[in-house]
Structures are given as structure tokens and as C-alpha cells.
Design brief:
This protein is an all-alpha fold. It has 4 helices and no strands. Helices cover 56% and strands 0% of the residues.
Length: 103
């Protein structure tokens, strides 16, 4: 897949907020990026558990987050923290999940 415009490495929050202005390819990149953030968070929890430590965040038993739910969590977080609009998407996603699902 070739992109006309290469997405920035830190995927700025404004791309998430103005998602409707992005091309289909750019929206797909955002979806993959958010999926990667969730895989990283899940991986951290797995490492914590293997080392006998508390999880970084705690989902209800058997629950798995998908991209649309992560987007909703971020949107709700941004209502409380509009200062985060200028921060990278990954940082905001992590903070939003940690706030929603404290350990």
C-alpha cells in the first residue's frame, strides 16, 4: 500500500480529532496505530503479571478493547483534558486507558 502523504511518527492528536478530513489510507494508519498502542499496553500487563507485579491497568474479567472503543475512551478523556489536544496520540491513548481502567 502506498501513501500519498507519509504520516508523522508520533501521529499528532489533531489527526485523530480531525479524522473526517483524512484520506481513507490515513484513517487506516490511525486505526493500526491505536491497535498497536493497545497491544503495547496489553503486553506491559503481561510482563507485569509474569514478574509478579500489579497490572498497569485493569480491564474487567474477559474484556478486550477494540479500536472503536479506544476512540470513544480518548474522546471522553479529551473532554476532561483539552490540554492534551496538542500531545501525541499514543500518549493520550495511554493516559485515557489508564484513567478509565485504573489498576
Amino acid at each position: 500500500m502506498f501513501f500519498k502523504k507519509r504520516p508523522p511518527l508520533d501521529t499528532p492528536m489533531d489527526h485523530f480529532v480531525h479524522r473526517e478530513d483524512l484520506s481513507e489510507d490515513e484513517r487506516s494508519v490511525l486505526d493500526v496505530y491505536l491497535t498497536g498502542v493497545m497491544h503495547a499496553l496489553t503486553g506491559i500487563n503481561t510482563v507485569q503479571a509474569q514478574n509478579g507485579r500489579d497490572p498497569v491497568f485493569k480491564l474487567p474479567e474477559g474484556r478486550v478493547l477494540d479500536t472503536p472503543e479506544i476512540e470513544d475512551i480518548i474522546r471522553e478523556f479529551l473532554k476532561q483534558r483539552p490540554d492534551m489536544l496538542s500531545q501525541p496520540l499514543g500518549l493520550c491513548a495511554v493516559m485515557a486507558v489508564l484513567q478509565r481502567f485504573p489498576s
